[in-house]
């Protein structure tokens, strides 16, 4: 085979035979950039600017190629000798160029020079990338680079790349070329990213890259925010992208005792604010080597060695102490602080009251009246209390006091207004970015809901039980009463027996929920129900208050999360909607959306209440 120099970068070792990866289309630019940043292949300047429109030099591309190789972690800051006459040992890219030579990825021109500041063409870059996949030069016949470019297209390494073979590559072209490399199989049939990260299997068998797992693997930490915390992060965070509680934020928003993670290559900081305060009840499997801790009736995995030490028999905290757990990104304990923070710990509703046993911290035990409180964050906590007037269903505020906790019974604070269509405000009040909303009804287990679920809904004094404003005048906590209908069950009534003659009044109903027949009856009331879709309004986890018929809509189409009615209106489909095929006048078989859409059926959708009152399509019947 005739060999040709690549104008300063020689094609070294290439082999043919890789099946193309299943790429449907180029990824979004920011997605590709995030992946390469997480892998430390392409990072921006001190301001995070990637300069994607600028041409790539040979030195820059060579550094990216080595960073995308299995030798990426073995490159030192210096090299013992200069790799080329025009690449002195002090040159910034010298270690990377030397590593690329050792890997057989590049070599100098006929005069023995590397020409590091010259731009690189697409053909040259493609040849290097094919080498990373294990293709030798001998695999290609004909004049270079025709064989390499044909293989480049066959592997779909060209997705998102806009330049031609002999054009100078821009950094945007390099971005897509290296992203495509990650989800391309090498000559052994293994996706390249899985070669770089063999323990994580970040690319699935279908060629899908798990970006969440990749970013998680790039995160370091944690450190607890406090005085001087920024000095513990190995880069200047003043220009970093900051996320707090999952939302794009600012460095100034990070508060003391936030749990902070970082990625230097991504120039990103993540801060988590979740805390749990309560009595230290137990360590498991033992206090000598704890991997989990129980506080306020709930067990939490321990995430860091420092937290494990603090909670061990060698640390400063003992069973029976009041402590605050600082939770990290996975909900595990990243750090521990003594006592409880001043002020309110949480708002919620009492879901159970019972006696519970506690360790007194001195080898003994005691029993205390204990309330289970479902907080507005959707989590259940357990607190001992000494009040006599507290009962299930009460709204409460939990405060830290000097010797433990105080549960204060709250009175209703009503509010009427419409939630904006973008879910950002209720009436004249904005929702705080971290607003916590709880929907409740009787003795049902409350559920946490998010502002988007309430978008467009009109809330009244009967649906708003309580709200709290933060220092900025935004709603920070909101407790509702059956605002969504999501606490109830939905199915079909299959049998109706109603008697109302003189003094003889009774009703019996059989209904199906989730394919299981159930019964509901009353010896004093006739509810005037019909066979068909229904709501079983609950007053407890297993207790039905009564049944209601739903309202029908003839269906034109069901697409994603929406139902288009023959009336031309669009209705939102509940995420937990149920589907039945009607096989007789009062006979129904539980089905699924995929099955009813695949069959030759006429569909009817049924909703519980108008959408501006929080209603959704709950049941779809196929005839």
Would you write up a description of this structure?
The N and C termini lie far apart (69 Å). By secondary structure, the protein is α+β, with helices and mostly antiparallel strands. The chain is globular, with a radius of gyration of 32 Å. α2 (58-67) packs across α3, α4 packs across α5 and α4 (122-132) packs parallel to α6 (171-182). It has a five-stranded mixed β-sheet with strand order 1-4-5-2-3, with no helix packed on it.
Name the features.
single chain; 623 residues; alpha+beta; five-stranded antiparallel beta sheet; 11 helices; globular
Rough outline:
globular
Quaternary class:
single chain
Low-pLDDT ranges: 1-24
Structural class: alpha+beta
Write down the Rg: 32 Å
Largest beta sheet: strand ordering: 1-4-5-2-3
What is the residue-mean pLDDT, rounded to a whole number?
89
Strand residues, percent: 35-45%
Number of helices: 11
Distance between the ends: 69 Å
Helix fraction bin: 10-25%
- How many β strands by DSSP? 33
The biggest sheet, with number of strands, parallel, antiparallel or mixed sense and barrel status, is: 5 strands, mixed
